[in-house]
Write a structure and sequence with these properties.
The complex is a heterodimer of chains A (399) and B (273). With 399 residues, chain A is mainly β. Chain A has one helix and 27 strands. Helix content of chain A is 1%, strand content 61%. The two termini of chain A are 44 Å apart. Chain B is built from three helices and 16 strands. Classes of the chains: A mainly beta (399), B mainly beta (273).
């Protein structure tokens, strides 16, 4: 028996990105500030997929996305040579197309039902990222990054992923268990030259370096989805590596998001009488960072000296979040409202996101960067963490 | 505006989450030579320091002694001599000064290896004097403004030599306690790390202090070296630190540091109540 379920569609999206500009109050100075060009892009996507059952045990889902990307004026486009030096600048008028990319994205998913309780899955898919977020900050906060579309200097980033998985229902479907393995290749992975200048830089695309990246891992998940008490326990072991010409002497290095061990435990208890209590605990291997292998002095300033990129790891990250939600309305009401009390990082773990070697302690006990360079300062190593326990109260109204 | 307020709040929020920590360094400290060399257009002895990196914070660097050091331009060659009292410090003849429109080469030969660096100098400029302000909670002063941090055309380094050893009541202090040296920069770039840099040490001094303000012109290459050095020092450890990496250099081989040529303009002020 062959059963088909065909889906198809068309998407059209307009993207506009303004990387920002410097505005000076002094009129004369303002004339010397180069203007950073804005980006205008169109994305057209046609997609089609079919889900097909073959007999009682097999199902297959396959499809393709056909995205077409076009960058348009008005803008000035800088062209770079192999050494990332500007070789030409061309101004494009309103709506004139200066770059087109087409990247077919096939996908295939096969499922084999071993028996009523168990199944196997295998999949392949290709994805394309036409719009990149540019940031070389090590901070966990995002706000001042730049969005840039692919173009003459930035090829679209593509990724191929293969995965296989085993799924099983346990104890009359009250629990489910899954184990999945994956391997993913990233092509034209965005990297940056050392100390890339990404803010108000007309030549920002010359700061980028494109390379290859790959990640792989296995994920295990035990889930309970029914009853008053629900939740899951998940464990992932994974690696993520990068290789970019001109970065780290061209050698492979672990990505900043390479965190081999990832554990997540989520428990939720619904009293069915207005209250829901939830606890969520996560554990991650500390992220990689580049730590110094020595120091030197230049004009009185202590400067770190580095060896391999991402040669060290921050301490492991773990955190418990607790929440209690009280539903204020009766069940089934058209209008629903609830009150949630949340404790983020309930046991106050100080998870550092940065280790620094450039501060001294002043007379008030604050850590400051020395500004008196007469040779009298004593530096200490410091770490920065997001604050301990963060309580919050939320009121939600749905209609 | 809301974003700026949010980020400013975050800076204060995170400021309280800075802790001293112990962090043993991974890997071996490389055996590179470090060059700290600025020549200027002043007629005087110029000193160039050669040293080795250190493997721990606050360690005193070992000097690179016994090197052969030369500076040359299209017309002349100046051999430098090592200061017998300060091993690793190499001194030009007292008649030496750098000139505009000349190309200078530093040549270091040491341990069978040759290191070179090339530089040029751009003209100096007269400048507006710095501003000091009185502290709110005492009778002392601090530097309030030296120069704009951003200029697309006039990159410069500002050195402040602050001396209150002649002020009554402060004469008998140790030299480190009545002198200060500060550096400020005007660069053609703006960095997020610079905007949200960590707090700097406060340097305070009494009325009667003499401040010598020296402006060093910076070429665009020298300004980029300074920018990278600041990203790794003064601007690191704030809200938006960048991915760490070695500061660039204009030296060949595996040497680190910089050889720069700067035109210097100078003025002095006395802090008056």
């Amino acid at each position: 028996m062959h059963q088909n379920s065909i889906r198809s569609g068309l998407e059209v999206t307009y993207h506009h990105s303004n990387p920002g500009n410097v505005t000076l109050e002094n009129g004369n100075a303002a004339t010397n500030v180069p203007e950073v060009a804005q980006y205008h892009s169109m994305e057209y996507v046609f997609y089609a997929s079919n889900e097909q059952r073959i007999g009682k045990r097999f199902s297959i889902r396959y499809g393709i996305r056909l995205p077409l990307w076009q960058d348009t004026g008005p803008t000035d486009v800088y062209y770079f040579d192999a050494n990332h030096q500007v070789i030409d600048t061309i101004g494009y008028g309103n709506n004139s197309v200066y770059f087109t990319a087409f990247s077919p994205e096939p996908r295939l998913n096969i499922q084999f039902q071993i028996n009523e309780k168990s199944s196997l899955k295998a999949s392949y898919n290709r994805t394309t990222q036409f719009l990149q977020i540019l940031s070389n900050s090590t901070s966990p906060f995002t706000s001042l990054e730049v969005w840039a579309p692919c173009g003459p200097n930035i090829q679209p980033q593509t990724a191929d992923q293969v995965a296989v998985g085993y799924f099983r229902d346990i104890s009359r479907a009250r629990f489910s268990f899954s184990a999945e393995g994956y391997y993913k290749w990233f092509h034209h992975h965005t990297d940056y030259r050392d100390h890339a200048n990404l803010l108000f830089n007309t030549l920002i695309e010359g700061e980028l370096r494109l390379g290859e990246a790959w990640s792989y891992g296995v994920e295990f998940m035990l889930r309970k989805s029914t009853g008053k008490l629900t939740g899951w326990i998940g464990y992932t072991w994974s690696r993520a590596m990068v290789q970019t010409p001109g970065i780290n002497n061209g050698n492979v290095y672990p990505a900043a998001y390479d965190r081999p061990n990832d554990i997540c435990i989520n428990i939720s208890y619904d009293t069915r009488n207005h209250w829901i209590f939830t606890a969520n605990w996560i554990f991650l291997t500390g992220s990689t960072f580049t730590a110094p292998v020595g120091f030197y002095y230049n004009n009185g300033t202590s400067v770190p000296l580095y060896g391999d990129k991402n040669n060290d790891r921050l301490p492991d990250y773990h955190r418990l979040d607790l929440s209690a939600i009280y539903t204020l309305n009766k069940p089934g009401n058209r209008y629903q409202h609830s009150l949630a009390v949340t404790l983020y990082n309930a046991y106050g773990r100080m998870n550092p996101f940065s280790v620094n070697f450039n501060k001294m302690m002043n007379d008030n006990g604050d850590f400051v960067v020395p500004s008196n360079l007469n040779g009298s300062y004593e530096l200490v190593t410091t770490s920065i963490s997001v604050a301990g326990i963060i309580p919050s109260i939320n009121y939600q109204f749905k209609f | 505006m809301r974003k700026i307020l949010f980020l400013t709040g975050l800076v204060f929020f995170l400021h309280g989450c800075v802790k001293e920590t112990s962090w043993p360094l991974q890997g071996e400290t490389p055996d590179r030579i470090i060059v700290d060399a600025i020549i200027t257009d002043e007629v005087r002895e110029h000193r160039i320091k050669l040293s080795y990196p250190v493997s721990e914070l606050n360690q005193k660097p070992e000097p690179v002694a016994g090197a052969g050091v030369l500076i040359s331009n299209e017309d002349e060659v100046w051999p430098l001599t090592e200061d017998p009292a300060n091993p690793g410090v190499y001194v030009t003849p007292s008649s030496f000064y750098a000139q505009l429109q000349k190309n200078y080469t530093l040549l270091i030969s040491f341990d069978g290896k040759v290191y070179t660096a090339k530089t040029t100098m751009i003209a100096g400029q007269v400048f507006r004097e710095l501003q000091v302000a009185k502290n709110e909670d005492n009778e002392l002063y601090h530097v309030d403004w030296v120069a704009n941090a951003f200029s697309t055309e006039e990159a410069a380094m500002w050195e402040l030599l602050i001396d209150w050893s002649m002020v009554p009541g402060f004469e008998h202090l140790d030299s480190l306690d009545n002198h200060a040296r500060m550096l400020f920069y005007t660069l053609p770039t703006l960095d997020v790390s610079e905007v949200f840099a960590p707090m700097m040490q406060s340097v305070i001094f009494p009325a009667g202090t003499m401040i010598t303000e020296r402006r060093y012109s910076l070429t665009s290459q020298h300004a980029e070296f300074v920018r990278e050095m600041l990203l790794e020092s003064n601007w690191a450890g704030g809200l938006f630190s960048v991915t760490p990496a070695n500061v660039g250099t204009n030296l060949s081989g595996d040497a680190a540091g910089y050889f720069g040529a700067c035109a210097v303009t100078e003025l002095s002020i006395i802090v008056t109540p």
